[in-house]
Amino acid sequence: MEKMLVVFLISCMLHLASAQLKVGFYNSTCPRAESIVRGIVQQRFNRDRSITAALLRMHFHDCFVRGCDASILIDSTRSKSSEKDAGPNLTVRGYDLIDAAKKALEAACPSIVSCADIITLATRDAVALAGGPKYAAPTGRRDGLVSDIADVNLPGPSLTVPEAFSFFKAKGLTLNDMVTLLGAHTVGVAHCGFFQDRLSNFQGTGQPDPTMDPGLAARLLRTCGTASRPVNRDPTVFLDQGTSFVVDNQFYNQTRFKKGILQIDQELALDKSTASIVSIFASNGIAFQQSFASAMIKLSKVEVLVGKAGEIRKNCRVFNPRKPTVLRPGL
Ligand code: HEM
Ligand SMILES: *[C@@H]1O[C@H](CO)[C@@H](O)[C@H](O)[C@H]1NC(C)=O
Ligand SMILES: *[C@@H]1O[C@H](CO)[C@@H](O)[C@H](O)[C@H]1NC(C)=O
Ligand SMILES: CC(=O)N[C@H]1CO[C@H](CO)[C@@H](O)[C@@H]1O
């Protein structure tokens, strides 16, 4: 009984928390906030279209570890390893863009716009620039006070659909949200190490993964080499072999032709719980775009800090210095 009450109260609090995010949260406190971020993303995108993939992955990794609180941005110190240094972070990119946006925002309105909102807004803008949906992103997130390598528990690329779904379900996301969000693999790259097992000796059979198109497997093998004889140093390949820089539904079409790169991507088209969603998105680009916009908004609300929780960091890579009035007993 007591337990149920606690669960009820916590779920009320979570509900309230997300209710405090608002579209245009900075309208009066920093009216140029969204246009400043958009300008910086546009500038970067003009010379490097891969920024869309970088930000999407950063946003996902941030939100799945302690909620969307910019904990992924914290640099490790000599005494403490932060989220950034965990294995699955591997090659999360785009930290410098967040720094540039923060610098411009601090100049325009000091200590107002959170790093967590910068990630959300920059991702939203980069998605739109790459041909994805344009959507209004609620803001008002606060930055977290904890970033610990031990908290990082992200899904791996060789999971089954039900295994992967357990991670999304724990964040309040549906199977439809998961299939939609994995559509982010319509842009960006993967290092060979994440799918090499599929190319020549799948599960010890001495054969490529039978769920991968043999022509594709042969091509990827030439790029990647084998685990014992790798070609140069861990090269990358496009996750969407069709339209690699465009946020569109081609990723789903590719998986229907056995051209998913990661095992989990291919599984989406094969598992009976997700195959029908994949075929809808593959044949209906507008349905995908609409679903992607709403799933991104849902992702951006996972376990956020609002109100007086957390802080507004001055520098996205370090926590603000503690106020001197806080005396800790024993120190
Ligand atoms: C079951 C869930 C997921 C798994 C197992 C997974 C796994 C991976 C792996 C292994 C890579 C390659 C990383 C590298 O080689 O550097 C990757 C890349 C990527 N992932 Fe995911 N991912 C998942 C969900 C998501 C979600 C929900 C998003 C965003 C909404 C996302 C966005 C991306 C993007 C954009 C890239 C390309 C990054 C780049 O080019 O720098 N992923 N993912
Ligand atoms: C901010 O302005 C936009 C555009 O006028 C409006 O849609 C939004 O509701 C406003 N938000 C707040 C919190 O005032
Ligand atoms: C779907 O992918 C296949 C295989 O790569 C390609 O031949 C076909 O043109 C694609 N269909 C659409 C509608 O883009
Ligand atoms: C960008 C970044 O901080 N990457 C780190 C990811 O984690 C590895 C260790 O697993 C570090 O070596 C990288 O520096």
Automatic annotation (TrEMBL):
Q: What class of enzyme is it?
A: oxidoreductase
PROSITE patterns per UniProt? PEROXIDASE_1 (PS00435), PEROXIDASE_2 (PS00436), PEROXIDASE_4 (PS50873)
KW Disulfide bond (keyword) present: yes
Disulphide connectivity of cysteines: 30-109, 63-68, 115-316, 192-224
Chain sites annotated for binding heme b: 185
Task: Report a single Gene Ontology molecular function.
Answer: lactoperoxidase activity
Print the keywords alphabetically: Calcium, Disulfide bond, Glycoprotein, Heme, Hydrogen peroxide, Iron, Metal-binding, Oxidoreductase, Peroxidase, Secreted, Signal
Tell me the first and last residues of the signal peptide: 1-19
Its domain of life?
Answer: Eukaryota
The record's Pfam families line, in alphabetical order, gives: peroxidase
Q: What is this protein called?
A: Peroxidase
Gene designation = LOC105155907
